[in-house]
Specification:
The structure is a homodimer.
Chain A lengths: L1 H10 L6 H11 L7 H10 L6 H13 L3 E5 L5 E5 L6 E5 L5 E4 L4 H12 L2 E12 L1 H6 L1
Parallel strand pairs in A: 3-5
Antiparallel strand pairs in A: 1-2, 3-4
The structure holds a DNA duplex (30 and 30 nucleotides).
DNA sequence: AACACATATGAGACAGAGTCTCAATACCGT
DNA sequence: ACGGTATTGAGACTCTGTCTCATATGTGTT
C-alpha cells in the first residue's frame, strides 16, 4: 500500500524524499477515511518533524495520481480515502469511518436521464453514500 | 421568492427582523448558486451594515427550513442554492453557475444495489451533477 | 400605544483549514 | 562526489465559519 503510493510518485517523476516515505507509511496504516488534520496530528504524535505544508502537498500529489480521493463529509468537512485510480464511488460508515468502493451501480443511467430532462451537458458527477457498515449495523 | 422565505421563517417562529428581510431580498435577486462570501460582499457593497455572523446565521436558518441547500463545488468550496424543500438533486452549470433541480432519476435503485453489494445500511446520499446548461453548451 | 422580555444583532475575537514565501536542505543523474 | 533543482519546514497569511457579549429590536400582551 505504501509501496504502491511510492511507486506511483516515482512514476510521476517526483522525488522520493524522506518525508514522503514516512507520510506514505502513515497513510498506509490508516483505516477508512482521514482528514488532513488527522495526518498532521499523527506526524506530531510521532515527532516526525514534518511540516504542515508538506502534508498538504503530499495529499495533493496523491490526489492527482488518483491514489487518494477527497470526499465531503455530511458535516461539510473534507476527508481523504485511499483508493484505486478508477472511476467509482464511496460508501462511508458514519459510525466507524470505514469506507468501501462501489463501481458503477447504474449511475450512468441516472445522469443520462437527468441530462435528458434538463438539457444540460453533464461533465462530472459526485455520488457519496453514507450509512453503517455491516459490523456497525449489527452491533447496533 | 423573498416572500416565500420570509413566510417560511415566520412559520418557523423566528422574528422577521430588518436584517433578515434585507438578506432575503439579496438572496432572491441572485441567480444560480452563491457562496456565503458572495452574500457578505453584497452586503458590503450596498452598505447594509449587516454583520458577517448574521449572514451565516440566516443561511443556517434557511438551510434548516429546506429553502436553501448547501452543495460542495468540485473545488471543495461550499455554495448555497435556493430550492424547494423536497428531496432532489442539483445540476450545476460550471460556466455560468445556473442550477436546476432534478427529482429522483432512479438513484434509489443505485443505492439499493450498492447496499446489496456492500452489506452497508445506507442512510443518506449525496449526488451532485456538474456540467453546462443548455445556454452555455450551445454558446460553446 | 406603550411595555417587558426574549430573541436577534454587530463587532470583533477566535479557531481551523489551507496556501504561500523563502532560505536551507536533500535528492539523484552525471 | 558534485551540482542543479525539487523539496522542505517554519511561520506568516488568507479565508471560512463560530462564538461571545453588550446593545438593540421584534412581538404578544396589556
Amino acid at each position: 500500500m505504501a509501496e504502491e503510493m511510492l511507486d506511483a510518485l516515482d512514476r510521476a517523476g517526483v522525488r522520493l524524499t524522506g518525508p514522503r516515505r514516512r507520510l506514505a507509511a502513515l497513510i498506509a496504516r490508516r483505516e477508512g477515511h482521514f482528514t488532513a488534520a488527522d495526518l498532521v496530528k499523527d506526524v506530531g504524535r510521532r515527532r516526525l518533524g514534518i511540516g504542515r505544508a508538506t502534508v498538504f502537498r503530499l495529499l495533493e500529489l496523491l490526489g492527482e495520481q488518483g491514489l487518494l480521493e477527497r470526499i465531503d463529509l455530511p458535516d461539510g468537512s473534507h476527508a481523504y480515502i485511499p483508493c484505486e485510480p478508477t472511476h467509482h464511488h464511496h460508501l462511508v460508515c458514519l459510525e466507524c469511518g470505514t469506507t468501501t468502493d462501489v463501481g458503477d451501480c447504474g449511475i450512468e443511467a441516472v445522469t443520462r436521464e437527468a441530462a435528458r430532462r434538463s438539457g444540460f451537458t453533464i461533465e462530472q458527477h459526485r455520488l457519496e453514500l453514507f450509512g453503517r457498515c455491516p459490523n456497525c449495523s449489527s452491533a447496533n
